[in-house]
Amino acid sequence: MPEEVKAHITGVVFQITTKAGDAVAEGDPVIVLESMKMEIPVEAPRAGTVKAIMVAEGQTVQEGETVAVLE
Amino acid sequence: MLSSVLIANRGEIARRIIRACRTLGIRAVAVYSDADADWPHVREADLAVAIGPAPARESYLNIERILGAARTARVDAIHPGYGFLSENWGFARACEEAGFIFVGPPWPVVQQLGDKVGARRLMAAAGVPVVPGSDGTVDTLDAAREAAALIGYPVILKASAGGGGIGMVTVAGEPALPQAFASAERRARSAFGSAALFVERFLEAPRHIEVQVFGDASGEVVHLAERECSIQRRHQKLIEESPAPRLPLRLKDRLTAAAVAGARAVGYVNAGTMEFMVSGEAFYFLEVNTRLQVEHPVTEEVTGLDLVAAQLRVAGGEPLGWRQADIRPRGAAIECRIYAEDEAKRFLPSPGRVTRLILPEGPGIRLECGVAEGVEVSVHYDPLLAKLVASGATREDAIDRMQAALDGLVVEGVKTVIPFHQRVMRSAAFRAGAVHTQMVEQGAFNA
Description:
The complex is a heterodimer. By secondary structure, chain A is mainly beta. Chain A is built from no helices and eight strands. Chain B is of the alpha+beta class. In chain B, strands 13-12-9-10-11-14-21-19 form an eight-stranded antiparallel sheet, with helices on both faces. Chain B has a five-stranded parallel sheet with strand order 3-2-1-4-5. In chain B, strands 7-6-8 form a three-stranded antiparallel sheet. At the A-B interface, loops of A face strand 16 of B.
Protein backbone atom coordinates (compact mmCIF):
# COMPACT_ATOMS: atom_id res chain seq x y z
CA MET A 1 0.00 0.00 0.00
CA PRO A 2 1.82 3.22 -1.10
CA GLU A 3 1.92 6.04 1.38
CA GLU A 4 2.80 9.65 0.74
CA VAL A 5 5.40 11.33 2.95
CA LYS A 6 4.32 14.93 3.47
CA ALA A 7 6.31 17.98 4.60
CA HIS A 8 5.15 19.10 8.06
CA ILE A 9 6.50 22.61 7.56
CA THR A 10 7.28 24.98 4.69
CA GLY A 11 10.93 25.01 3.75
CA VAL A 12 13.64 24.51 1.14
CA VAL A 13 14.90 20.98 0.41
CA PHE A 14 18.36 20.99 1.99
CA GLN A 15 19.38 17.38 1.51
CA ILE A 16 17.86 14.22 0.10
CA THR A 17 19.04 11.48 2.42
CA THR A 18 17.33 8.47 0.77
CA LYS A 19 16.72 7.23 -2.78
CA ALA A 20 14.20 4.98 -4.52
CA GLY A 21 14.66 1.40 -3.34
CA ASP A 22 16.05 2.31 0.12
CA ALA A 23 14.50 0.57 3.11
CA VAL A 24 13.51 2.96 5.92
CA ALA A 25 12.31 2.40 9.47
CA GLU A 26 9.57 4.47 11.06
CA GLY A 27 11.04 7.82 12.07
CA ASP A 28 14.02 7.67 9.69
CA PRO A 29 14.70 10.94 7.86
CA VAL A 30 13.66 10.67 4.20
CA ILE A 31 14.73 14.20 3.26
CA VAL A 32 15.96 17.22 5.26
CA LEU A 33 14.30 20.62 4.90
CA GLU A 34 15.88 23.94 5.76
CA SER A 35 13.60 26.63 7.10
CA MET A 36 14.58 29.83 8.87
CA LYS A 37 18.17 28.63 9.41
CA MET A 38 17.04 25.30 10.95
CA GLU A 39 17.53 21.88 9.44
CA ILE A 40 14.40 19.80 9.91
CA PRO A 41 14.18 16.15 8.87
CA VAL A 42 10.98 14.87 7.26
CA GLU A 43 10.59 11.42 8.77
CA ALA A 44 9.09 8.21 7.40
CA PRO A 45 5.62 7.78 8.98
CA ARG A 46 6.11 3.98 8.95
CA ALA A 47 8.66 1.36 7.92
CA GLY A 48 8.83 0.61 4.19
CA THR A 49 10.72 1.06 0.97
CA VAL A 50 11.17 4.41 -0.74
CA LYS A 51 9.27 4.22 -4.04
CA ALA A 52 10.01 7.73 -5.27
CA ILE A 53 11.44 11.06 -4.15
CA MET A 54 9.17 13.81 -5.45
CA VAL A 55 11.39 16.86 -4.83
CA ALA A 56 14.86 18.14 -5.74
CA GLU A 57 17.50 19.83 -3.57
CA GLY A 58 16.98 23.59 -3.45
CA GLN A 59 13.26 23.32 -4.20
CA THR A 60 10.76 25.14 -1.95
CA VAL A 61 8.01 22.90 -0.56
CA GLN A 62 4.85 23.98 1.20
CA GLU A 63 3.51 22.45 4.39
CA GLY A 64 1.46 19.37 3.46
CA GLU A 65 3.19 18.86 0.10
CA THR A 66 4.22 15.31 -0.81
CA VAL A 67 8.01 14.93 -0.76
CA ALA A 68 8.29 11.16 -1.23
CA VAL A 69 6.25 8.01 -1.61
CA LEU A 70 6.78 4.82 0.39
CA GLU A 71 5.63 1.34 -0.58
CA MET B 1 32.11 61.83 11.16
CA LEU B 2 30.53 59.42 8.69
CA SER B 3 28.20 60.89 6.08
CA SER B 4 26.67 57.81 4.47
CA VAL B 5 26.32 54.21 5.71
CA LEU B 6 25.22 51.05 3.93
CA ILE B 7 23.39 48.55 6.15
CA ALA B 8 24.27 45.00 5.11
CA ASN B 9 21.30 43.46 6.89
CA ARG B 10 17.50 43.32 6.99
CA GLY B 11 14.46 43.39 9.25
CA GLU B 12 14.43 44.89 12.71
CA ILE B 13 18.17 45.51 12.99
CA ALA B 14 18.29 47.36 9.66
CA ARG B 15 15.53 49.66 10.96
CA ARG B 16 17.40 50.13 14.24
CA ILE B 17 20.55 51.21 12.38
CA ILE B 18 18.55 53.52 10.08
CA ARG B 19 17.18 55.22 13.21
CA ALA B 20 20.66 55.73 14.64
CA CYS B 21 21.79 57.19 11.31
CA ARG B 22 18.89 59.67 11.45
CA THR B 23 19.92 60.76 14.94
CA LEU B 24 23.39 61.60 13.66
CA GLY B 25 22.33 63.08 10.31
CA ILE B 26 23.91 60.22 8.36
CA ARG B 27 22.41 59.05 5.05
CA ALA B 28 21.18 55.45 5.49
CA VAL B 29 21.36 53.03 2.56
CA ALA B 30 19.51 49.69 2.74
CA VAL B 31 20.07 46.59 0.65
CA TYR B 32 17.42 43.99 -0.07
CA SER B 33 16.89 40.62 -1.67
CA ASP B 34 13.96 39.83 -3.96
CA ALA B 35 12.09 38.44 -0.94
CA ASP B 36 12.29 41.73 0.99
CA ALA B 37 11.34 44.40 -1.57
CA ASP B 38 8.22 45.43 0.39
CA TRP B 39 9.71 45.20 3.89
CA PRO B 40 9.76 48.31 6.10
CA HIS B 41 13.57 48.71 6.22
CA VAL B 42 13.60 49.14 2.44
CA ARG B 43 10.94 51.87 2.53
CA GLU B 44 12.52 53.74 5.42
CA ALA B 45 16.07 54.02 4.10
CA ASP B 46 17.20 57.09 2.16
CA LEU B 47 18.17 54.76 -0.67
CA ALA B 48 17.68 51.01 -1.15
CA VAL B 49 19.72 48.82 -3.48
CA ALA B 50 18.57 45.40 -4.74
CA ILE B 51 21.30 42.78 -4.26
CA GLY B 52 19.87 39.54 -5.60
CA PRO B 53 17.63 36.52 -5.10
CA ALA B 54 16.09 35.42 -1.82
CA PRO B 55 18.65 32.77 -0.71
CA ALA B 56 21.07 34.54 1.63
CA ARG B 57 24.13 33.11 -0.17
CA GLU B 58 23.08 35.07 -3.26
CA SER B 59 22.22 38.30 -1.46
CA TYR B 60 22.92 39.18 2.20
CA LEU B 61 25.87 36.76 2.42
CA ASN B 62 27.33 37.73 -0.94
CA ILE B 63 30.34 39.97 -0.31
CA GLU B 64 30.74 41.10 -3.92
CA ARG B 65 27.10 42.15 -4.21
CA ILE B 66 27.22 44.06 -0.93
CA LEU B 67 30.40 45.87 -1.98
CA GLY B 68 28.85 46.54 -5.41
CA ALA B 69 25.86 48.16 -3.73
CA ALA B 70 28.19 50.23 -1.52
CA ARG B 71 30.01 51.52 -4.61
CA THR B 72 26.72 52.30 -6.39
CA ALA B 73 25.42 54.20 -3.36
CA ARG B 74 28.79 55.93 -2.74
CA VAL B 75 28.73 55.33 1.02
CA ASP B 76 31.75 55.75 3.26
CA ALA B 77 30.97 52.93 5.72
CA ILE B 78 29.20 49.58 6.00
CA HIS B 79 27.32 48.44 9.11
CA PRO B 80 26.93 44.65 9.14
CA GLY B 81 24.30 44.39 11.92
CA TYR B 82 24.35 40.91 13.48
CA GLY B 83 24.31 37.49 11.81
CA PHE B 84 25.02 37.31 8.05
CA LEU B 85 28.52 38.78 7.39
CA SER B 86 28.91 40.56 10.74
CA GLU B 87 31.56 38.22 12.16
CA ASN B 88 33.19 37.32 8.86
CA TRP B 89 36.71 38.76 9.03
CA GLY B 90 37.10 38.25 5.28
CA PHE B 91 34.19 40.62 4.77
CA ALA B 92 35.60 43.17 7.22
CA ARG B 93 38.92 43.04 5.35
CA ALA B 94 37.20 43.25 1.95
CA CYS B 95 35.37 46.39 3.10
CA GLU B 96 38.65 47.98 4.14
CA GLU B 97 40.40 46.99 0.92
CA ALA B 98 37.52 48.43 -1.11
CA GLY B 99 37.89 51.74 0.75
CA PHE B 100 34.89 51.43 3.09
CA ILE B 101 34.95 51.71 6.87
CA PHE B 102 33.65 48.51 8.50
CA VAL B 103 31.50 49.44 11.50
CA GLY B 104 33.04 47.02 13.99
CA PRO B 105 36.44 45.99 15.29
CA PRO B 106 39.50 45.90 12.98
CA TRP B 107 39.42 42.71 10.85
CA PRO B 108 42.42 41.04 12.57
CA VAL B 109 40.49 41.27 15.88
CA VAL B 110 37.41 39.72 14.26
CA GLN B 111 39.65 36.97 12.88
CA GLN B 112 41.44 36.28 16.18
CA LEU B 113 38.25 36.11 18.22
CA GLY B 114 36.29 34.19 15.57
CA ASP B 115 38.59 31.22 16.03
CA LYS B 116 37.06 29.78 19.21
CA VAL B 117 40.17 27.83 20.22
CA GLY B 118 42.44 30.81 19.61
CA ALA B 119 40.05 33.12 21.49
CA ARG B 120 40.09 30.75 24.47
CA ARG B 121 43.89 30.85 24.56
CA LEU B 122 43.98 34.64 24.27
CA MET B 123 41.49 35.05 27.10
CA ALA B 124 43.24 32.54 29.36
CA ALA B 125 46.50 34.46 28.77
CA ALA B 126 44.70 37.70 29.76
CA GLY B 127 43.68 36.12 33.06
CA VAL B 128 40.05 35.48 32.09
CA PRO B 129 38.81 32.12 33.47
CA VAL B 130 38.03 29.54 30.76
CA VAL B 131 36.10 26.28 31.03
CA PRO B 132 38.43 23.29 31.59
CA GLY B 133 39.00 21.95 28.08
CA SER B 134 41.39 20.65 25.44
CA ASP B 135 44.32 22.92 24.65
CA GLY B 136 43.54 23.35 20.97
CA THR B 137 41.61 21.13 18.62
CA VAL B 138 41.32 17.36 18.93
CA ASP B 139 41.95 15.92 15.48
CA THR B 140 41.28 12.26 16.19
CA LEU B 141 38.95 10.21 18.33
CA ASP B 142 41.95 9.09 20.43
CA ALA B 143 42.96 12.71 21.05
CA ALA B 144 39.37 13.49 22.08
CA ARG B 145 39.32 10.49 24.42
CA GLU B 146 42.58 11.55 26.05
CA ALA B 147 41.43 15.16 26.47
CA ALA B 148 38.02 14.14 27.85
CA ALA B 149 39.62 11.79 30.40
CA LEU B 150 41.75 14.68 31.72
CA ILE B 151 38.84 17.15 31.78
CA GLY B 152 36.33 14.73 33.30
CA TYR B 153 32.87 13.77 31.96
CA PRO B 154 30.32 15.00 31.05
CA VAL B 155 32.02 16.88 28.19
CA ILE B 156 30.80 18.84 25.19
CA LEU B 157 32.27 18.67 21.67
CA LYS B 158 32.26 21.99 19.84
CA ALA B 159 33.18 23.10 16.32
CA SER B 160 36.26 25.33 16.34
CA ALA B 161 34.85 27.41 13.49
CA GLY B 162 31.34 27.33 14.94
CA GLY B 163 28.89 29.46 16.83
CA GLY B 164 25.20 29.80 17.52
CA GLY B 165 25.07 26.43 19.20
CA ILE B 166 25.39 24.57 15.89
CA GLY B 167 27.33 21.31 15.82
CA MET B 168 27.66 20.96 19.61
CA VAL B 169 27.27 17.48 21.07
CA THR B 170 27.26 16.58 24.75
CA VAL B 171 28.82 13.30 25.87
CA ALA B 172 27.81 11.72 29.17
CA GLY B 173 30.65 9.21 29.34
CA GLU B 174 33.39 7.49 27.36
CA PRO B 175 31.18 4.79 25.76
CA ALA B 176 29.18 7.51 23.96
CA LEU B 177 32.26 9.32 22.67
CA PRO B 178 32.92 7.55 19.31
CA GLN B 179 29.44 8.17 17.95
CA ALA B 180 29.28 11.71 19.32
CA PHE B 181 32.70 12.55 17.82
CA ALA B 182 31.67 11.30 14.37
CA SER B 183 28.39 13.21 14.50
CA ALA B 184 29.99 16.46 15.70
CA GLU B 185 32.67 16.25 12.97
CA ARG B 186 30.04 15.70 10.30
CA ARG B 187 27.90 18.60 11.47
CA ALA B 188 30.87 20.93 11.83
CA ARG B 189 32.04 20.13 8.31
CA SER B 190 28.63 20.71 6.75
CA ALA B 191 27.83 23.89 8.72
CA PHE B 192 31.24 25.60 8.82
CA GLY B 193 33.34 23.85 6.17
CA SER B 194 35.79 22.66 8.83
CA ALA B 195 35.52 19.50 10.93
CA ALA B 196 37.94 20.80 13.62
CA LEU B 197 36.57 20.14 17.12
CA PHE B 198 37.56 20.93 20.67
CA VAL B 199 36.42 19.45 23.97
CA GLU B 200 35.18 21.27 27.07
CA ARG B 201 33.73 20.27 30.42
CA PHE B 202 29.93 20.30 30.15
CA LEU B 203 28.45 22.39 32.94
CA GLU B 204 25.05 21.23 34.21
CA ALA B 205 22.46 23.99 34.21
CA PRO B 206 24.80 27.02 34.14
CA ARG B 207 23.59 30.59 33.66
CA HIS B 208 24.53 32.51 30.55
CA ILE B 209 25.63 36.00 31.50
CA GLU B 210 27.40 38.39 29.16
CA VAL B 211 29.08 41.76 29.49
CA GLN B 212 28.74 44.57 26.96
CA VAL B 213 32.09 46.19 26.24
CA PHE B 214 32.95 49.18 24.08
CA GLY B 215 36.34 50.40 22.93
CA ASP B 216 37.64 53.26 20.81
CA ALA B 217 40.74 53.83 18.69
CA SER B 218 42.59 55.52 21.58
CA GLY B 219 42.56 52.25 23.55
CA GLU B 220 39.80 53.29 25.93
CA VAL B 221 37.61 50.30 26.91
CA VAL B 222 34.54 50.48 29.14
CA HIS B 223 31.87 47.98 30.09
CA LEU B 224 28.13 48.66 30.10
CA ALA B 225 27.24 46.10 32.75
CA GLU B 226 25.88 42.63 32.22
CA ARG B 227 22.94 40.91 30.59
CA GLU B 228 21.32 37.69 31.78
CA CYS B 229 20.48 35.50 28.75
CA SER B 230 19.74 32.10 30.26
CA ILE B 231 16.27 31.55 28.77
CA GLN B 232 17.26 29.76 25.57
CA ARG B 233 16.12 27.03 23.23
CA ARG B 234 18.60 25.16 20.98
CA HIS B 235 21.38 27.26 22.57
CA GLN B 236 19.74 30.41 21.18
CA LYS B 237 18.35 33.16 23.35
CA LEU B 238 14.67 33.90 23.83
CA ILE B 239 14.72 36.38 26.74
CA GLU B 240 17.45 38.72 27.96
CA GLU B 241 17.58 41.20 30.78
CA SER B 242 19.80 43.66 32.58
CA PRO B 243 20.83 43.61 35.34
CA ALA B 244 21.17 39.85 35.91
CA PRO B 245 18.84 38.90 38.78
CA ARG B 246 20.31 37.61 42.03
CA LEU B 247 23.90 38.11 40.90
CA PRO B 248 26.12 38.77 43.94
CA LEU B 249 27.84 42.14 43.65
CA ARG B 250 31.36 40.73 44.02
CA LEU B 251 30.70 38.20 41.24
CA LYS B 252 29.36 40.99 39.02
CA ASP B 253 32.50 43.04 39.68
CA ARG B 254 34.74 40.10 38.79
CA LEU B 255 32.75 39.42 35.58
CA THR B 256 32.89 43.01 34.34
CA ALA B 257 36.58 43.35 35.26
CA ALA B 258 37.40 40.14 33.37
CA ALA B 259 35.45 41.35 30.33
CA VAL B 260 37.32 44.66 30.22
CA ALA B 261 40.70 42.94 30.73
CA GLY B 262 39.91 40.50 27.91
CA ALA B 263 38.82 43.27 25.55
CA ARG B 264 41.91 45.39 26.34
CA ALA B 265 44.19 42.40 25.75
CA VAL B 266 43.11 42.14 22.12
CA GLY B 267 42.92 45.89 21.42
CA TYR B 268 39.15 45.78 21.10
CA VAL B 269 37.50 48.66 19.24
CA ASN B 270 33.75 49.34 18.85
CA ALA B 271 30.90 47.34 20.46
CA GLY B 272 31.48 43.78 21.58
CA THR B 273 30.11 41.24 23.98
CA MET B 274 32.02 38.86 26.24
CA GLU B 275 29.88 35.82 26.94
CA PHE B 276 30.33 33.77 30.11
CA MET B 277 28.83 30.71 31.71
CA VAL B 278 28.19 31.16 35.40
CA SER B 279 27.92 28.21 37.76
CA GLY B 280 27.54 29.11 41.42
CA GLU B 281 30.28 31.61 42.22
CA ALA B 282 32.46 30.44 39.32
CA PHE B 283 32.39 31.88 35.81
CA TYR B 284 34.02 30.85 32.57
CA PHE B 285 34.65 32.62 29.28
CA LEU B 286 32.47 31.28 26.47
CA GLU B 287 33.11 33.50 23.43
CA VAL B 288 33.32 37.06 22.21
CA ASN B 289 30.70 38.38 19.81
CA THR B 290 32.56 40.94 17.74
CA ARG B 291 29.45 42.86 16.70
CA LEU B 292 26.30 44.54 17.91
CA GLN B 293 24.25 42.02 19.90
CA VAL B 294 20.56 41.31 19.19
CA GLU B 295 19.78 42.14 22.84
CA HIS B 296 21.63 45.49 22.97
CA PRO B 297 18.36 47.38 23.72
CA VAL B 298 18.19 46.13 27.33
CA THR B 299 21.60 47.69 27.94
CA GLU B 300 20.46 50.90 26.26
CA GLU B 301 17.37 51.03 28.46
CA VAL B 302 19.27 50.73 31.74
CA THR B 303 22.22 52.98 30.76
CA GLY B 304 20.32 55.56 28.69
CA LEU B 305 23.04 55.28 26.01
CA ASP B 306 22.61 54.72 22.26
CA LEU B 307 24.96 51.87 21.35
CA VAL B 308 24.36 52.01 17.61
CA ALA B 309 24.97 55.75 17.42
CA ALA B 310 28.16 55.17 19.45
CA GLN B 311 29.23 52.47 16.98
CA LEU B 312 28.84 54.93 14.11
CA ARG B 313 30.69 57.70 15.95
CA VAL B 314 33.61 55.44 16.88
CA ALA B 315 33.75 54.03 13.33
CA GLY B 316 34.00 57.62 12.12
CA GLY B 317 37.11 58.10 14.27
CA GLU B 318 35.58 59.97 17.20
CA PRO B 319 36.56 59.11 20.77
CA LEU B 320 33.96 57.20 22.74
CA GLY B 321 33.77 59.89 25.39
CA TRP B 322 32.27 57.59 28.03
CA ARG B 323 34.10 57.25 31.33
CA GLN B 324 33.44 54.15 33.37
CA ALA B 325 32.44 56.19 36.41
CA ASP B 326 29.76 57.98 34.36
CA ILE B 327 28.06 54.77 33.28
CA ARG B 328 25.48 54.14 35.98
CA PRO B 329 22.79 51.65 35.02
CA ARG B 330 19.46 52.15 36.73
CA GLY B 331 16.24 50.16 36.94
CA ALA B 332 15.72 46.95 35.01
CA ALA B 333 14.96 46.04 31.39
CA ILE B 334 13.80 42.78 29.78
CA GLU B 335 13.63 41.77 26.14
CA CYS B 336 11.41 39.06 24.64
CA ARG B 337 12.38 37.93 21.17
CA ILE B 338 9.27 37.50 19.05
CA TYR B 339 10.09 34.60 16.73
CA ALA B 340 7.86 33.16 13.99
CA GLU B 341 7.92 29.72 15.54
CA ASP B 342 5.34 27.27 16.76
CA GLU B 343 6.23 27.08 20.43
CA ALA B 344 3.68 24.28 20.94
CA LYS B 345 5.64 22.14 18.45
CA ARG B 346 9.06 22.52 20.02
CA PHE B 347 9.72 25.87 18.35
CA LEU B 348 9.35 24.69 14.75
CA PRO B 349 9.70 27.49 12.17
CA SER B 350 6.44 29.09 11.04
CA PRO B 351 6.97 31.05 7.82
CA GLY B 352 4.03 32.80 6.14
CA ARG B 353 2.34 36.15 5.55
CA VAL B 354 1.71 38.53 8.45
CA THR B 355 -1.99 39.26 8.08
CA ARG B 356 -2.52 41.34 11.21
CA LEU B 357 -0.12 43.21 13.48
CA ILE B 358 -0.99 45.26 16.56
CA LEU B 359 1.89 46.66 18.58
CA PRO B 360 1.44 47.51 22.25
CA GLU B 361 2.34 50.87 23.76
CA GLY B 362 2.77 52.14 27.28
CA PRO B 363 5.27 53.48 29.78
CA GLY B 364 8.58 51.65 29.55
CA ILE B 365 7.61 49.74 26.40
CA ARG B 366 9.93 49.70 23.40
CA LEU B 367 9.49 47.75 20.18
CA GLU B 368 12.16 46.88 17.67
CA CYS B 369 9.95 45.51 14.92
CA GLY B 370 11.10 44.38 11.48
CA VAL B 371 7.78 43.44 9.94
CA ALA B 372 4.56 45.14 8.87
CA GLU B 373 1.12 43.85 7.95
CA GLY B 374 1.21 42.12 4.59
CA VAL B 375 4.88 41.13 4.50
CA GLU B 376 5.87 37.56 3.77
CA VAL B 377 8.10 35.99 6.44
CA SER B 378 10.38 33.89 4.28
CA VAL B 379 11.91 30.47 4.86
CA HIS B 380 15.28 31.91 3.87
CA TYR B 381 16.06 33.98 6.95
CA ASP B 382 16.12 33.98 10.72
CA PRO B 383 12.60 33.83 12.27
CA LEU B 384 13.03 36.99 14.41
CA LEU B 385 10.09 39.31 13.71
CA ALA B 386 10.45 41.82 16.52
CA LYS B 387 11.89 42.44 19.97
CA LEU B 388 9.63 43.61 22.74
CA VAL B 389 11.50 45.46 25.49
CA ALA B 390 10.00 46.47 28.83
CA SER B 391 11.77 48.51 31.47
CA GLY B 392 10.91 49.78 34.92
CA ALA B 393 12.32 51.04 38.18
CA THR B 394 12.51 47.46 39.44
CA ARG B 395 12.65 44.03 37.80
CA GLU B 396 9.14 43.33 39.07
CA ASP B 397 7.82 46.49 37.36
CA ALA B 398 9.53 45.51 34.12
CA ILE B 399 8.01 42.00 34.25
CA ASP B 400 4.52 43.40 34.94
CA ARG B 401 4.85 45.80 32.03
CA MET B 402 6.14 43.02 29.78
CA GLN B 403 3.22 40.81 30.74
CA ALA B 404 0.70 43.53 29.84
CA ALA B 405 2.52 44.37 26.61
CA LEU B 406 2.61 40.72 25.54
CA ASP B 407 -1.16 40.56 26.06
CA GLY B 408 -1.53 43.57 23.77
CA LEU B 409 0.79 42.28 21.03
CA VAL B 410 -1.14 40.68 18.18
CA VAL B 411 0.58 38.87 15.32
CA GLU B 412 -1.60 36.85 12.94
CA GLY B 413 -0.73 34.81 9.87
CA VAL B 414 2.30 33.12 11.41
CA LYS B 415 2.63 31.31 14.72
CA THR B 416 4.78 33.08 17.28
CA VAL B 417 6.41 32.44 20.64
CA ILE B 418 4.18 35.02 22.38
CA PRO B 419 2.30 32.32 24.41
CA PHE B 420 5.65 30.97 25.65
CA HIS B 421 6.73 34.43 26.83
CA GLN B 422 3.40 34.93 28.59
CA ARG B 423 3.97 31.72 30.57
CA VAL B 424 7.53 32.72 31.45
CA MET B 425 6.41 36.12 32.77
CA ARG B 426 3.86 34.37 35.00
CA SER B 427 6.27 31.68 36.17
CA ALA B 428 7.28 31.76 39.82
CA ALA B 429 10.81 30.56 38.99
CA PHE B 430 11.37 33.35 36.48
CA ARG B 431 9.88 35.98 38.78
CA ALA B 432 12.19 34.74 41.54
CA GLY B 433 15.16 35.16 39.17
CA ALA B 434 16.14 31.51 39.55
CA VAL B 435 17.08 31.00 35.90
CA HIS B 436 19.51 28.69 34.09
CA THR B 437 20.15 27.62 30.50
CA GLN B 438 18.48 24.21 30.70
CA MET B 439 15.07 25.49 31.88
CA VAL B 440 13.29 25.54 28.52
CA GLU B 441 14.51 22.07 27.55
CA GLN B 442 13.58 20.74 30.97
CA GLY B 443 10.02 21.95 30.40
CA ALA B 444 10.00 24.57 33.19
CA PHE B 445 7.62 26.78 31.15
CA ASN B 446 5.47 24.12 29.48
CA ALA B 447 1.75 24.82 29.15
